[in-house]
């Protein structure tokens, strides 16, 4: 009995001793938001003190972590004072970090190495990614005057962007990988996690943008098909507590009027939010049609976007977005050499003349996108879902080439054309990804599904009376009428592991299964086929010194196959277009010096193409169209440099350069072998000088001047048009843009200019003169799409 009593006392003593420990060692789930005095802070490190347990705040400054009750959370971020918070009974911890005044005096490029992006589907430092990544923030967007995707891409070395023919036709080239006319872009475009499947949307205006990133190199693992050259990731501004808004108006030459407004706030503080914006632009244009005495490059754009965001409990978020864009602009704005004696035949660097068409082309582009994004946090990982549906409708009409009588987009009312391109896309992506940013192992698993229904109808109308400008009686030639369905299913996984504090490795793979169906309604031919695309990715990085990293990567990407409307054996045009694959190798260095005042990044890349897609004209003697062929193998390699220098507290210098060597090595068209890849500038560079001064107690002045240069560009892949490729290239050209902004309290006034020295170049050039057997000056002549002249204007804005 005595022994039992002693044992009971011992057990009671042990229980008394360990109960406090058991209580204080219980894990509790904590959530909260980290902000500064003016805004939420993404990428803040949240660490449980004296452990390896940690996470970081997301793009909205939110975090979620499990920690020991009674422990301490440590919040740290570059440029801010570290703060420690004791874990007590509160499960919601909201933290405000104070700027570190001592660091502000020393770290003059504060925040560059901490600029964070989602190019690899999770929030991480741009400078720590083993990839070539460039990002611009909302402040840079304002001062550089970026108002569309093209305005951003032209400032990135190694990328070119041009527009032609209608509101949706753009030509993008990334590291020697060109876009296929009317076809898929070489880059994936993602807005707030929503994949834009239609290349026609790459011409849309941008407003209310928080950050834009471009990641170069094949990104098939993260973005699937068509990301063979990289991806553009756009993040719009997010709502938060408190009401705020902005109105902006502007006026420029060409009778250009710009209006923009947005409002944002909370429906219920910390629980539900809204943000709505609208943008409107209307320009009379600058390039006159001398036959009709009207400008051909007029444009009107209306864009609307709405966002509702809900925090569901402590760890889940639901976002509902809707966007509508409507554009109306001139189309088929070609200048021909027949009616412009100063536009020299067979000279791709002749920039004289004006459009002379008898038919004023008009194009419209309407798109609607609705999306739902859901995110919920679990212990150590997150679940994300992105669902979207888009409806895109493009239509244009305009003058057309006629051979009887001969009229190459000229003043004779011989013929006109119409085209209608539509697409309806359903996307769904599910992702599981790790959430402990301080863990040695990061991972990402996902499933992607896409269904695209698209139509493409093209018609030519030949005038029965070539003197009737009203086209009262026409004969219709149905050039194409295609219905297409593409279904994609992708599975992907990605692992990243820190072997040491300095050495990181990652590996991932994605397999995509695609099914294509085509109904060619002119001939009544129905086709279908399936294939799969395996896309691995490997990378390694080594931090050999503080803020200095070497990296190497390999990745594989692909561009979807398709169908041509016609089979033209003489031009090598087959019914089936094979999918195109790229194998990309990259080695580089990311470094910073002088307490982050000087950032210098260098990359070398080598890309090997399999079945590269190239477009060309084809005709079966009745119908003419642009078809796509495959060249067996091509190569592209080059160097890229990206540098940033804080000269002083008032001046920043940003620059970059790219040098690319391309070659077609295997092709069924013998004349193409040894030629350069077309539509890909062989070099480019960008230099931007930024200035900012405090003008008074509540005012400041900001200014920017930037120089963009695009190098030699070859127009065609082979010698199909009767001449060597080396004779048909565009010479290098340079554009200079500038902007000056004066801020006083909540008011802003800005003056801007684009292409201020009115540099001329061709956005597109076709040697149609070869069709008459005399490219040096026969009756048919050549055509070109002129560049935009100098534009300038003033803008006013008010924040409330």
TrEMBL record:
Keyword terms of this UniProt record: Cell outer membrane, Ion transport, Iron, Iron transport, Membrane, TonB box, Transmembrane, Transmembrane beta strand, Transport
GO biological process: iron ion transport
Localization annotation: Cell outer membrane
Ribonucleoprotein as UniProt keyword: no
Membrane topology designation: Multi-pass membrane protein
One cellular component term from this protein's GO annotations in UniProt: cell outer membrane
Record domain TonB-dependent receptor-like beta-barrel: where: 322-756
TonB-dependent receptor plug domain residues: 126-231
Similarity comment: Belongs to the TonB-dependent receptor family.
Protein's name according to its UniProt entry: TonB-dependent receptor
Organism, as annotated: Flavobacterium hiemivividum
């Amino acid at each position: 009995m005595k022994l039992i009593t002693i044992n009971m006392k011992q057990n009671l003593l042990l229980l008394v001793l360990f109960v406090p420990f058991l209580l204080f060692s219980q894990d509790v789930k904590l959530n909260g938001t980290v902000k500064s005095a003016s805004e939420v802070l993404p990428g803040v490190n949240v660490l449980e003190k004296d452990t390896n347990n940690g996470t970081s705040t997301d793009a909205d400054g939110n975090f979620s972590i499990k920690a020991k009750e009674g422990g301490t959370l440590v919040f740290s971020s570059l440029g801010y004072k570290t703060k420690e918070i004791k874990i007590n009974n509160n499960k919601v911890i909201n933290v405000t970090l104070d700027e570190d005044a001592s660091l502000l005096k020393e770290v003059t490029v504060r925040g560059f190495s901490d600029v964070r992006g989602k190019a690899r589907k999770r929030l991480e430092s741009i400078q720590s990614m083993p990839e070539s990544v460039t990002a611009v923030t909302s402040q840079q967007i304002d001062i550089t005057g970026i108002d569309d995707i093209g305005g951003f891409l032209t400032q990135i070395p190694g990328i070119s962007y041009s527009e032609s023919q209608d509101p949706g036709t753009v030509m993008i080239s990334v590291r020697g990988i060109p876009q296929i006319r009317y076809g898929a872009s070489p880059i994936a475009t993602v807005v707030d996690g929503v994949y834009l499947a239609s290349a026609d949307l790459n011409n849309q205006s941008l407003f209310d943008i928080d950050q834009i990133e471009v990641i170069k190199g094949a990104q098939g693992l993260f973005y699937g098909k068509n990301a063979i050259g990289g991806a553009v990731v756009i993040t719009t501004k997010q709502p938060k507590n408190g009401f705020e808004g902005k109105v902006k108006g502007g006026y420029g030459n060409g009778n250009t009027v710009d209006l923009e407004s947005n409002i944002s706030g909370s429906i219920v503080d910390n629980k539900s939010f809204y943000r709505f914006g609208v943008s409107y632009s209307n320009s009379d244009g600058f390039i006159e049609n001398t036959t009709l005495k009207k400008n051909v490059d007029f444009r009107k754009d209306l864009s609307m976007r709405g966002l509702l965001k809900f925090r569901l409990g402590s760890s889940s978020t639901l976002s509902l977005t809707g966007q509508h864009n409507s554009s109306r602009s001139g189309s088929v704005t070609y200048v021909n050499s027949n009616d412009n004696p100063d536009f020299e035949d067979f000279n791709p660097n002749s920039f004289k003349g004006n459009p002379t068409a008898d038919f004023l082309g008009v194009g419209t582009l309407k798109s609607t996108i609705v999306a739902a994004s859901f995110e919920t946090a679990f212990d150590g990982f997150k679940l994300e879902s992105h669902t979207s549906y888009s409806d895109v409708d493009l239509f244009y009409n305009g003058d057309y080439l006629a051979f009887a009588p001969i009229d190459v987009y000229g003043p004779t009312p011989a013929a006109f054309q119409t085209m209608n391109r539509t697409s309806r896309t359903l996307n769904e992506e599910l992702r599981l990804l790790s959430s402990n940013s301080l863990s040695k192992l990061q991972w990402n698993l996902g499933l992607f599904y896409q269904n695209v229904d698209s139509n493409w109808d093209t018609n030519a109308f030949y005038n029965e009376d070539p003197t009737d400008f009203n086209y009262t009686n026409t004969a219709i030639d149905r050039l194409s009428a295609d219905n297409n369905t593409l279904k994609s299913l992708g599975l992907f996984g990605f692992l990243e592991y820190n072997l040491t504090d300095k050495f990181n490795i990652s590996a991932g793979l994605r397999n995509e299964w695609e099914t294509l169906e085509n109904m060619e309604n002119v001939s009544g031919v129905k086709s279908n086929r399936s294939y799969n695309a395996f896309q691995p990715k490997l990378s390694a990085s080594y931090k050999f010194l503080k803020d200095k990293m070497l990296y190497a990567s390999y990745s594989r990407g692909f561009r979807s196959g398709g169908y041509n409307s016609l089979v033209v054996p003489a031009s090598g045009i087959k019914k089936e277009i094979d999918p195109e694959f790229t194998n990309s190798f990259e080695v580089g260095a990311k470094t910073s010096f002088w307490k982050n005042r000087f950032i210098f990044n260098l990359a070398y890349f080598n890309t090997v193409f399999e079945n590269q897609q190239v477009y060309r004209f084809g005709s079966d003697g009745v119908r003419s169209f642009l078809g796509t062929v495959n060249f067996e193998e091509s190569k592209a390699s080059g160097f890229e440099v990206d540098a940033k220098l804080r000269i002083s507290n008032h001046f920043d210098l940003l620059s970059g350069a790219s040098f690319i060597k391309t070659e077609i090595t295997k092709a069924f068209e013998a004349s193409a072998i040894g030629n350069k890849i077309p539509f890909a500038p062989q070099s480019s560079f960008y230099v931007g000088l930024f200035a900012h001064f405090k003008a008074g107690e509540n005012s400041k002045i900001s200014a920017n001047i930037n120089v963009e240069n695009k190098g030699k560009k070859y127009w065609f892949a082979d010698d199909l048009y009767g001449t060597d490729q080396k004779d048909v290239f565009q010479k290098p050209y340079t554009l200079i843009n500038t902007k000056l902004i004066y801020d006083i309290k909540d008011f802003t006034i800005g003056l801007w200019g684009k292409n201020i020295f009115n540099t001329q170049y061709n956005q597109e050039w076709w040697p149609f003169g070869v069709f008459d057997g005399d490219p040096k000056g026969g009756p048919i002549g050549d055509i070109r799409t002129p560049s935009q002249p100098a534009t300038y204007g003033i803008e006013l804005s008010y924040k409330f």
